[in-house]
Design a protein that fits this description.
This protein is α/β, with parallel strands linked by helices. The chain contains twelve helices and twelve strands. Helices cover 35% and strands 15% of the residues. Strands 8-7-6-9-10-11-12 form a seven-stranded parallel β-sheet, sandwiched between helices. A five-stranded parallel β-sheet has the order 2-1-3-4-5, with helices on both faces. The protein binds nicotinamide-adenine-dinucleotide (NAD). Nicotinamide-adenine-dinucleotide (NAD) binds next to helix 4 and helix 6. Nicotinamide-adenine-dinucleotide binds next to helix 4 and helix 6.
């Protein structure tokens, strides 16, 4: 197929060109984000390949359809950025990569928690300036702490396994509890109990109408004072303004976030010489106990190899008229 890639970086081109050798699709890489203004670039292509912050709105999909595009291949797991009803109406099929090294994201969530706790980012800078003082670097043992996990699918399960290895008590909330995890020692509880008991809370659920702003003023008030919150799922699961208020009072003791509600205007770009107009992220980054990474949980060699291979396989299978098993079923858009 002829495929137009949007929101691409050097690493997308590197991995996709490398793995396309065995698929022989025609690939064209655009740096532009896909939205109604850039959708005309897809003219003459059979498929578009998109990422988390591309805007597959009704307007974009209708332009893509008029330009002859028949397939949207997501090179990610989440599909909250697609208007699935509009895709159905325009006859555009949607495929995704439901699982690619859940360990990559789970390990990144752990990295955020360890960094916030032991302040290795600050220690690194200090010793480079010959400051060997330990003042204000004190952390806490993870052993025997209670870790709450919301969403125990692929990534949440990998995260639970790591935290059990640290000797933590792991409690979890999911509408579909996993008997395997329960056997390994994960205790499923109500959301309320999870909020009350967790020393560290890690989010691994998708963004849906149920989970949008699941973490808000009211839920912060039910948590332990000084709780650590880690979010590698989707930004809008947390009400960011409420998180800032909770940080100001100390109710929220640490915040590690790999995803952010308004990330599409910031993440994956070098804005080091620009004025950041988003005052919320600017305020967040002013806190000493907040650590932001720019949606890099998935960014390992192993995960990228799988993303490229599965995406190209999905496209080849659809081209042959077969079922790739990774088609996103048409249903009302879960995140709108
Ligand atoms: P998954 O589908 O395997 O697991 C999601 C789990 O969440 C399921 O067990 C589901 O039952 C549960 N869930 C759904 N609604 C819930 C609710 N209201 N409350 C509690 N649990 C609920 O998905 P996954 O592969 O583990 O990925 C989880 C999320 O991680 C994705 O949806 C995506 O948003 C995010 N993600 C982030 C990155 C990154 O780089 N930071 C990469 C991949 C995925």
């Amino acid at each position: 197929m002829k495929i137009a890639f949007f929101s691409t970086k050097s690493y997308d081109r590197y991995f996709f060109e490398r793995y396309n050798a065995s698929f022989n699709h025609t690939l064209c890489f655009y740096e532009a984000q896909l939205n109604p203004d850039t959708a005309p670039l897809a003219e003459g292509f059979d498929a578009v390949c998109v990422f988390v912050n591309d805007q597959l709105t009704r307007a974009t999909l209708s332009i893509l359809s008029r330009k002859g595009v028949r397939l949207v291949a997501l090179r990610c797991a989440g599909f909250n950025n697609i208007d699935l009803a509009a895709a159905r109406e325009t006859g555009i099929r949607v495929v995704r990569v439901p699982a690619y090294s859940p360990h990559a994201i789970a390990e990144h969530a752990v990295a955020l928690a360890l960094t916030l706790n032991r302040k290795t980012h600050k220690a690194y800078n200090r010793v480079r300036e010959n400051n060997f003082s330990l003042e204000k670097l004190i952390g806490f043992d993870l052993w025997q702490k209670t870790v709450g996990v919301i969403g125990t699918g692929q990534i949440g399960a990998a995260f639970c396994a790591i935290m059990l290895g640290f000797g933590c008590r792991v409690i979890a909330y999911d509408s579909f509890p996993s008997p395997k995890l329960a056997d390994r020692g994960v205790e499923y509880t109500s959301l309320d109990t999870l909020f009350q008991r967790s020393d560290i809370l890690s989010l691994h659920c998708p963004l849906t109408p149920d989970t949008r702003h699941l973490i808000n003023k009211e839920s912060f008030s039910r948590m332990k004072k000084g709780v650590m919150l880690i979010n590698t799922s989707r930004g809008a699961v947390i009400d960011t303004k409420d998180a800032i208020d909770a940080l100001k009072t100390g109710q929220l003791g640490y915040l590690g976030m790999d995803v952010y509600e308004q990330e599409e205007n910031l993440f994956f770009r070098d804005l080091s010489e620009s004025i950041i107009e988003d005052d919320i992220i600017a305020r967040l980054m002013s806190f000493p106990n907040v650590l932001v990474t720019a949606h890099q949980g998935f960014f390992t060699n192993e995960a990228f190899e799988q993303i490229a291979t599965i995406t190209l396989q999905n496209i080849s299978t659809v081209e042959k008229g077969a079922d790739c098993g990774n088609e996103v079923p048409y249903q009302p858009n879960p995140s709108l």
